[in-house]
Amino acid sequence: MHLSPVLSAVRNARVADPETATVSEPRDVLIREGRITEVAPAGTAGTEDDTLDAGGRTVLPGLIDAHVHVTASTADLATLGDTSPFLVAAQAQRLLNGMLARGFTTVRDAAGADHGIAEAVRRDLFVGPRLFFGGKALSQTGGHGDVRGPGTQVLDQHVCCPHLGIVCDGVSEVRRAARDQLRTGADHIKIMLSGGVASPTDRIDSTQFSDDEVRAIVEEAEAADRYVLGHAYTARAVDRGLRLGVRSIEHGNLIDSGSVALFREHDAFLVPTLVTYDRLKAEGARHGLPVASQLKIDQVLAGGLDALRLATEGGVNVVFGTDLLGEMQSHQSAEFRIRAQVVSSADVLRSATTTAARLLRAEGELGVVAPGAHADLVVVDGDPLDDVTVLADPAHALHTVVKGGRPVVDDAGLVRTG
Asked: Is 208 a member of any domain?
């Protein structure tokens, strides 16, 4: 595959700093071997062919979505295990292309993507965002990762079957399952701390795994210098996970003030995923969401915005996530518009850049336009720090996306694959 050459500079760029919520006067972002070397006065760079003229537009750090499912090409997750892994991989490439075209140069997969897909992205066999992967999520029997209906007995967990989760029970089983994901080079381990929408037999307000099981998984992750993210909705499930060492809580729609205090005490992260409930409500049935799951949506939809507001005002580390399934992933950028209803544009942008980079343990490398960082850049019309909702319409707002110093999306919104 022939890729675009690495740039030496992005010229005439108004550089946005999400952390300070400021935008500079026009500057030149100098690049060497895919990393930023200097943010220099305008006119420092030449006008050679290997430079990009931003035309005075705003230049953001590449966006980060910390909760995606790149192998979830359908909302009917039970059928993934019956799908050829080759077809799943081909569909994943298309989904990754779409994320990149929306300005997301880094994503964290929250169950499904494995070392093979991550390696394909690293080698540029798949043109997509940088991919942090965790393999299969860990679930107890009958938990959120158990896709069997109440009458189904057989459970095929062979490594080649592309289910999003693996079922394990008891301390020895969960240790083995965690170690097996870590063996593949996983960046994190995901566990199910409560029931969920897309699973057929559990309740939203249930808690899952015993304390000893959760502690064992956390111990294994920490031993490998990795961390655990936990799917949880209710304050009871969230608080329990935080006390047991889970670092990143996914969703958290039904948290309370006590949860906020625990987030701060443990310097943990909350990853709300509001757009997924909006889209599941509107079109989940059309994309294969089973009836049993459709009936659960209202339980979590109403509380999402209140939880986001409570967490932001309480000083929690809030990170951008979407959790969309199947063709609904095209609505990824709508999360910006939804969050802007209750928190500031700067807060929303930080959640998709600097705070997300801290969650990924990539401070200074991702989420900033600064010397030493990867040259992952998004050139946009407008000022997202003033109005972040411009990012909700990437087809019109995005001019160019640069990953590792290479233009990967052009001003027509087309992913460059060669």
From this structure: yes
